[in-house]
Amino acid sequence: MSSPHRPLDRRSGLVLDTYELGRRAGAMKVVRTTTPAPADLGIDVIAVPPGSPVELDVRLESVVEGVLVTGTATVEVRGECVRCLAEISDSMEIDIQELFVYPENEAEEDEASRLEGDLLDLEPLLRDGVVLDLPFQPLCREDCQGLCVECGANLNDDPDHSHEATLDSRWEKLRGLEGGSDGHYDVHSQFQD
């Protein structure tokens, strides 16, 4: 929803002018454009790079209450896999559908977005759509094996990677308590004799 506290910037590609629609119900305008992405469009591990292209393909339709916006926005997302830290790059298509009501409409502030004069702002819709569609824990692939917890080797590159089992030095003194010639202490065999 448009924020009443932030004035809209007509130069932003995400702010669209509805002036030529007038207030005639049924008037329509198609907008196909590419604009730079705003900053902070995503989450810490995956996001839309600031300034990367946002391809808009939307239809503005004048209705009795205001302007109905429907269409899509296509963005590039980049981040890193949470298991192996490999770079992830993908595109997302966000569906946009929102009614922007005229300023004098009596709809509650949380029920509808509002036009500011003849301007509407798609940034909040884009931001909500992107953030809700992003994976919370992005993976480079579903079966990503991650990194070795001991040395950090990528287990996707070397699935047979292993380390010799090492005994914690704090347990070394107990090694002398192991009985028998085979070096193992078996409690059950001690009591069966």
Strand content: 25-35%
Which class best fits the helix and strand makeup? Answer: mainly beta
Total DSSP E strands:
9
Sheet with the most strands, sense and barrel status: 7 strands, mixed
Measure the end-to-end span. Answer: 80 Å
Helix run count: 2
Question: Roughly how many Å is the radius of gyration?
Answer: 29 Å
Low-confidence stretches: 1-5
Share of helix among residues? under 10%
Average pLDDT metric? 83
Following the backbone from N to C, one meets helices and strands in this order, namely EEEEEEEEEHH
The global form is elongated
Give descriptors for this structure:
2 helices, single chain, mainly beta, 193 residues
